[in-house]
Write a structure and sequence with these properties.
Low-confidence stretches of chain A: 1-42
Number of helices of chain B: 3
Strand order of the largest sheet of chain B: 1-4
Number of domains of chain B: 2
CATH class of the largest domain in chain B: Alpha Beta
Structural class of chain B: alpha+beta
Helix content of chain A: 40-55%
Oligomer: heterodimer
Distance between the termini of chain A: 87 Å
Largest sheet of chain B: 2 strands, antiparallel
Mean pLDDT of chain A: 87
CATH architecture of the largest domain in chain A: 3-Layer(aba) Sandwich
Radius of gyration of chain B: 16 Å
Number of domains of chain A: 2
Number of strands of chain B: 4
Low-confidence stretches of chain B: 88-96
Distance between the termini of chain B: 21 Å
CATH architecture of the largest domain in chain B: 2-Layer Sandwich
CATH topology of the largest domain in chain A: Rossmann fold
Shape of chain A: elongated
Largest interface: A-B, 57 and 48 residues
Mean pLDDT of chain B: 87
Shape of chain B: elongated
Helix content of chain B: 10-25%
Chain lengths: 389, 96
């Protein structure tokens, strides 16, 4: 069966994008199967044309990302408009796929979709986008939205059986936590093949006849992988950080002679900044230097980061006589507060990591949180006492 | 990189295994190898309890208490008295 030989006019149905009313059908009478979409105003920038199939017209998407795509990824990483960064679920095409072409399944988080299509240059393939509510494959698999039922529903909704002659779906390996491959095959007749973890290995995977090397099957957590996740740690914490830093700054007005505005101006910014540095030691330094920080528990790695920071600040304080710490007691107080804060922030990076388990995190929390709370409480008490000496 | 030792809840019943190889295919941490027609657990401490193996095991030979290894999720679950779950939903912001 050659889908490209089908004429648009013979289509009995109105092809629609899966979840909106955009009519992708090109004007009747044109014979070329790859055409610019008829109603530009509704069509996404990255849709470059249309391909006609027995199951309707399918939008063809480009495989190079433009400035707006890159900007969009950057904004999503920083949490700007994050939950609206989606593509419509449904079937898409790259290149000029036919009935023999592979079907790649992915999530409808635009960052995920862009990563996939940007790796498919030169390939002819179908992309089946599941409705994962704008969440990436792995997280969606964990929540079950990248799941067996959604996959089966989407396969039937786009009438995939009419588009391809093969009965194979290539799923990202990290989607496996949400999918029961044997149930998919039983319920809709399509056999699930798990592709590589990373989209960048897809071309090689296909060239090898859908065989993944052990390396393609392993998830990594490189310096770059960790670095791009730092904003996700910082942005949601900003309001708490600002609140605590402000509270410390205001409290720094306390002194032997009562409350002094002059003291706030003098000490407030320094005390607030010290706290924020402590948090960043956990949420930025810890992820970056994760493999080299001692211990396995993230709270321990975070605490080490806090201690390193404390050492650096103390050294600066001594060398430059900048009076970063108000007095010895205040130094001791920060020696407790900074590692506790960094430990907590570091522990939270477990959520972004690729290798922590629920059981491990529970165990870690049971030990770490009481210690963090104790250090922080004693630290704060000492810090307040230090204001008066 | 390895997380804590001896915490994974992964349980394997070799007598049920049919040697299909799905577990080794889906595990992103190389916990399984297939040898002599059966799976073998070779690196239990690498397990992050994602649940991919048990969900894809057609013989029901694998089970794991699957969940997210995320401290923020566990803590918020503890305070809300719900199961640990990341805050991703239609309305709330998400970490992913």
């Amino acid at each position: 069966m050659n889908v490209e030989s089908k004429n648009v006019d013979s289509e009995p149905i109105i092809p629609r994008c899966a979840c909106c009313t955009t009519d992708y059908r090109s004007s009747a009478g044109e014979s070329d199967n790859v055409q610019p979409p008829g109603q530009r105003e509704y069509v996404e920038r990255w849709v470059t044309g249309m391909i006609s199939t027995p199951s309707g017209n399918v939008p063809v998407v480009g495989t190079s990302l433009d400035f707006a795509d890159r900007m969009g990824s950057w904004k999503a990483r920083w949490g700007i408009g994050r939950m609206d960064y989606r593509v419509d679920p449904g079937l898409y095409a790259v290149g000029r796929p036919d009935a023999e072409s592979p079907v790649l399944v992915t999530a409808n988080y635009k960052l995920t979709f862009d990563t996939l299509r940007s790796r498919l240059g030169g390939l002819d393939a179908w992309i089946l986008v599941l409705d994962t509510k704008g969440i990436n494959v792995w997280c969606a698999a964990g929540k079950g939205t990248f799941g067996t039922l959604e996959l089966i529903k989407r396969v039937s909704e786009v009438r995939l059986a009419g588009v391809v002659s093969g009965r194979k779906l290539i799923l990202p390996q990290l989607g496996a936590a949400g999918i029961s491959a044997h149930l998919v095959e039983k319920l809709c007749g399509f056999r699930v093949v798990y592709g590589p973890v990373r989209a960048s290995d897809l071309t090689e995977f296909l060239e090898r006849g859908m065989k993944a090397t052990p390396e393609m099957r392993r998830i990594r957590f490189t310096f770059h992988d960790r670095a791009v996740l730092i904003p996700v740690e910082i942005v949601p914490a900003l309001k708490y950080l600002a609140g605590i830093a402000l509270a410390l700054a205001l409290l720094s007005g306390l002194g032997p002679g009562g409350y002094g505005v002059e003291r706030i101006v003098h000490r407030g910014p320094v005390e607030g900044a010290l706290f924020i540095c402590g948090f960043l030691a956990g949420s930025a330094f810890t992820p970056l230097f994760l493999p080299w920080l001692p211990g396995r528990a993230f709270s321990l790695k975070g605490a080490w980061s806090g201690m390193v920071l404390m050492l650096v600040i103390t050294a600066c304080d001594v060398l430059t006589k900048a009076m970063i710490f108000e007095n010895t007691l205040s130094t001791v107080a920060w020696m407790l507060i900074i590692p506790a804060t960094a430990s907590f922030a570091g522990m939270n990076f477990t959520g972004a990591s690729t290798y922590t388990s629920l059981s491990g995190v529970k165990k870690e929390i049971r030990v770490a949180v009481p210690l963090q709370a104790a250090f922080a409480t004693v630290g704060i008490i000492l810090w307040i006492v230090a204001c008066f000496v | 990189m390895y997380y804590l030792k001896n915490v994974a809840t992964l349980a394997y019943q070799p007598e049920l295994c049919i040697g299909c190889g799905r577990c080794a295919e889906v595990c992103p941490h190389g916990v399984f190898v297939i040898g002599e027609g059966k799976a073998a657990v070779i690196d239990r401490d690498a397990c992050m309890e994602c649940g991919a193996c048990s969900r894809n095991c057609p013989a029901g030979a694998l089970s794991v208490n699957a969940g997210v290894g995320c401290a923020a999720a566990v803590l918020s679950g503890f305070f809300r008295k719900t199961a640990p779950e990341c805050g991703c939903s239609d309305n709330s912001p998400c970490c992913g």
